Amino acid sequence: MFSQHTSVRGDFRVFLSEDAGKELAGKIDNQHLSGILGLNIYNHTLSFGYMQSLGDTAMPTLSNAEPAVFMDSISADFTNQNEKVISLRYDYDFKDTTLNGLKFMARYSQGTDIEIPRLKRDIFKEDSYDLDLNYRIPSGVFKGIGFRTRYTRYRNDLPNERIVFRPANETRVNIDYTWNF
């Protein structure tokens, strides 16, 4: 059924979080389930992902830290209380072309059934459209230096007071290098 140029890729994660000790950060009660499954054919990968938070609180993270979920949108975490998220992603790796080192990614993610108790409304929603184009120099003196452009369009129906993620269009340009020592 599958050729040598076809593979199925997956990433499944479960986080079980509960409070202990003096509860200085408040109550913590969250079970976060996530998975993404992708079909890779030659340089193309099409993936479908699903995440869901269960419990009385959102998924806890350290202040200013990124949660360890498979969907790394630059505009949102998609880890709210009882949120259900679907994600569709397409990747293309130019490795077998004259543009070796170039990669492209497009992703749409939608979160629904968000509960934020302090806002006194039952459910909210959010969505994000992300594009990444990155190039890592594959050989020579500058091998490993990467240039990445990221664009996101993020929307939600949360009220503007006291929310972390506001609707936005954002573009970022990064220069990446991993120092091996």
Q: Summarize the helix and strand pattern as letters.
A: EEEEEEEE
What about the largest sheet?
8 strands, antiparallel
Low-confidence spans: pLDDT under 50, at least 5 residues?
none
Strand content: over 45%
Biggest sheet: strands side by side, in what order? 1-2-3-4-5-6-7-8
Calculate the mean pLDDT score and round it: 88
How many individual β-strands?
A: 8
- Label the overall shape: elongated
Name the helicity range: under 10%
Distance between the termini: 43 Å
Total count of helical runs of at least 4 residues: 0
Question: What class, by secondary structure content?
Answer: mainly beta
Please give the structural blueprint.
Blueprint: E1 6-18, E2 29-41, E3 44-55, E4 84-93, E5 102-116, E6 121-136, E7 146-156, E8 168-176
Antiparallel strand pairs: 1-2, 2-3, 3-4, 4-5, 5-6, 6-7, 7-8
Write structural notes for this entry.
It contains no helices and 8 strands. The chain has an 8-stranded antiparallel beta sheet, with no helix packed on it. The mean pLDDT is 88. The termini are far apart. It is elongated, with a radius of gyration of 19 Å. The chain is an all-beta fold. β2 (29-41) and β3 (44-55) form a beta hairpin.
